[in-house]
Amino acid sequence: MGTCPVCGNGRVQDKGKFYGCTEYQKGCTFTLPKIFCGKKLSDAMIRKLLNGGKTGLLKGFKSKKGKSFEAYLQIENGRLKFEFPVRK
Which of 37, 83, 81, 28 is nearest to 57 (CA)? Predict the structure, then answer.
């Protein structure tokens, strides 16, 4: 998929129920979920996050209250983070 953004040495690969770094035996704890806030993350989205830093605008996320919303995803400090579009 791509290089691990936390350790920089490992590769991120599909581990079945999640994506994880190949250097986990050496202490790297980087993982990405396959489903985030109700939205399934595709292999292409994960590659884009690992290589480009940010996905395109994604629809279909669900808030804790069940409301649907759209946002960009990016990785910051080894964690997924939303970036919301500018409101007009």
Answer: 83
